[in-house]
């Protein structure tokens, strides 16, 4: 039986026991069992991620997805857990890992160095900290529990911002074989076949307040300048945090080394064209 089925059964038992105060001892026993199961899942996931990383060299974000989907299947719950793992890993644990500009699985292209992301993160972290201190002081006079809940949410917000910025350093754009992966940290990504690219144009600046079309994946902060716009032959699925998905036919992104990524994409397209031409001539 899958682990998630066991957890659902225990959760059902927990609800039943909650309504029966005379079974309080069993209630705490169930809580202890659930804590053991959750601890087991966490350690087994970490063990699986480390094992995969040693064998494949794939980044943490993809490893955690592979391990969790193997254990729990595909669901919104899994997507939620993956996002939370990413937040805490990239905010607290990623410091021991070097950011990648070269990857044995393909060529990596950074996009955070010339971005305004760092300034954005610092400003909002300061605002959240100031707001947290002020509201904690005010709410504590009314209800101490609510004050601490609000403070914990503010701390989580700061961890999310720090994790997001760190993930942009450790999750660069990738070109491997005939595929290109465009990312915005752990927050969103899209994997494209380069032969599915109809056009690769220089992107235009968006006007202040202008809405981005739903069919466009805008892989950068709005305060940054876009560099490239990819027009696709066929729509492709973009994946975001917490299981968000949508089909897009345009991808707008930026890269620190614009010439290098443009040269690599054109090189792959040229090689792909020659390969197809040789196959037709045989």
Tally of separate domains: 3
Determine the number of helices (DSSP H or I, runs of at least 4 residues).
Answer: 7
Mean pLDDT: 78
Shape: globular
Task: Specify the helix fraction band.
Answer: 40-55%
Number of strands: 9
Q: Hey, roughly how much beta strand do the residues contain?
A: 15-25%
As a whole number of angstroms, the C-alpha radius of gyration is 23 Å
Low-confidence stretches: 19-23
* Element-level helix/strand string: HHHHEEHHEEEEEEEH
Summarize the main sheet.
Answer: 9 strands, mixed
Distance between the termini: 52 Å
Helix/strand class: alpha+beta
Structure summary:
This protein is an alpha+beta fold.
Tags for this model:
alpha+beta, membrane, transmembrane, 9 strands, nine-stranded mixed sheet, 3 domains, transmembrane helix, 282 residues
What does this 3D model show about the protein?
With 282 residues, this protein is an alpha+beta fold. The chain folds into three domains: 3-96; 117-169; 171-281, no CATH class. The protein has seven helices and nine strands, in the order H-H-H-H-E-E-H-H-E-E-E-E-E-E-E-H. Strands 1, 2, 3, 4, 5, 6, 7, 8 and 9 form a nine-stranded mixed beta sheet that branches. A hairpin with a 4-residue loop joins strand 8 (228-240) and strand 9 (245-253). Helix 2 packs across helix 3 (60-72). It is globular and about 65 Å long. It starts with a helix and ends with a helix. The model is unreliable at 19-23 (pLDDT under 50).
